[in-house]
Amino acid sequence: MEKNYHVCTGCGLLCDDIEVESEKNIINKVYTACRVGVAHMKEGKEEAIFRVDNKPVNEETAISEAASILKNAKNPLIFGLGTSTSETHKLAIELARKTNATLDDTSSFCLGSLVEALIHNKIKTCTLDDIRNKADVIIFWGADPSDSHPRHLSKYSYFPRGSEKQRGWEEERTAIAIDIRKSHTAKICGNYFFQIPPGGDTEFIDALIAGLSGKLPKTSYNYPPKKILELANILKGAKFGIVFAGLGLIYSLENLEPLFRLMKALNEKANFHLVPMVGHYNMRGFNENLFAETGYVNSVKFENDIVRHGPEYSIVESLKAKTVDAALIIGSDPLSSLPRSIAKNLFEIPVISMDPCETLTSRNAKVYINTAISGVEAGGTATRMDGTKVSFKPVVETNHPSDEAILKKIMEAL
Q: Does the first or last residue of the chain, that is N or C, have fewer Cβ atoms within 10 Å of its Cβ?
């Protein structure tokens, strides 16, 4: 019997084997999804909400006010889009050009530099399907997918039977965790958990490279050399190795040069790939879409057909320097996620919030537009954490407008 499968947009895995039961356009039961996915798929509300100055208005009034804010701003900021479709990204880039806006997303303070390195082919990568079918050595570095991407280990990386790994994790896969704490993923890795101090990743990389070369590895924090040599020997024997790089690793490095050196050393001895542990379902898609249009993955400023790029155009530096005078926040909650010393500057400018959820940002926005949940109430395309393009259709019908539809109306109003 054929089954009607759906795509879950709850995280960067974009699991495509989800089944649901719905009644009167309300999802009652979700099968196959993880706890994050179930909560995400059942998140929809019945009535769309539009507010201006925290007072209920209709959609037309909210769009008119949003357009007016952007039109009167000299340097608006457009931020978010990690939980929006690729079709929405292209419209946001067009809107940024039209309004001479600064455009950024969360990747400017998380995994953007790593995605950029992959786009420029500086690091060898592969697909999650390749990993499921072939991987024999798996490293989770500064990442805890058991909590952040609950189906990661069971669907793709460690537990599944692959076409070339039929005996699975019991005999044919080795999982390794390198982290500052014993996470849930580290517990699964058992004896292959390497606990390092905060900020110790670069030294551990140098020691591991020395071990790969047969030299005695040393660290200033006196990590046991024998244990690093043991790890190096496991990595040298990999036929298909994968490094899942998380925020814990990226935040520890001043730049990616140590990681480049490690991947080079690994591939001189074995066969290793890297995939970033992208959280938002289409953050990598935003990076790739913006790169296709501008040559940059984030932190850009449009100015009369000129595209400027630099850290000063990230949301963090823009708010810190108070260089933006309005903000359109799409599917993000910077008032909750950014440090208070930076986020508080959003209270000084008019903010437009487009979001399926009520957030701290939406509750304090001058204009709030309650949009559809992509993958649940609206369809489109996205890019999975490994770079694979995924298309999806809405599961239920809704009166919530999609991000794409709202941006089109704002541009028409401009």
A: N
Task: Please indicate, yes or no, if residue 32 is contained in any of the structural domains.
Answer: no
Whether 315 and 288 share a structural domain: yes
Distance CA 76, CA 81 (A): 16
Question: CA 43 from chain center: how many Å?
Answer: 20
CA 368 remoteness from chain centre: 24
HSE-CB for 365 with a 13 A CA cutoff: 32
Alpha-carbon distances, residue 310 vs 77, 170, 290 (angstroms):
14, 47, 14
Do 105 and 191 sit in the same domain of this protein? no
- Which pLDDT score, from 0 to 100, does residue 24 have? 81
Residues 195 and 186: their CA atoms lie apart, in Å, by: 9
Decide if 118 is inside a domain.
yes
The overall average pLDDT reported for the chain is 95
Classified as helix, coil or strand, 268 is helix
Q: Does the pLDDT of residue 1 top 50, yes or no?
A: no
pLDDT digits (tens, 9 = 90+) for 283-307: 999 999 999 999 999 999 999 889 9
Q: Other C-beta atoms within 10 Å of 22: how many?
A: 16
Specify the CATH number for the domain of residue 71: 3.40.50.740
pTM of the complete model: 0.95
Q: Model confidence over 215-234: pLDDT tens digits?
A: 999 999 999 999 999 999 99
Phi-psi region of 305 (alpha: psi -120 to 50; beta: other; left: phi over 0): left
The reported pLDDT for the residue numbered 2 is 47
- State the residue range of the domain holding 331: 47-109+281-376+401-413
Statement to judge: residues 91 and 165 lie in one domain = no
d(CA 206, CA 235): 15
Q: CA-to-CA distance for 263 and 238, rounded, in angstroms?
A: 13
**Phi, psi for residue 15 in degrees, rounded to 5:** -55, 130
Of the candidates 150, 112, 136, 93, the residue with the CA atom closest to the CA atom of residue 289: 93
Q: What is the pLDDT of residues 227-258, one digit of tens each?
A: 999 999 999 999 999 999 999 999 999 999 99
297 and 204, same domain (yes or no): no
Which H or E run contains 136? none
Q: Which helix (H) or strand (E) holds 394?
A: none
Average the pLDDT over 40-50 and give the result. Answer: 84
Query: Residue 86 burial by CB count (10 A; 0-12/13-18/19+): exposed, middle or buried?
Result: buried
CA distance 59 to 146: 40
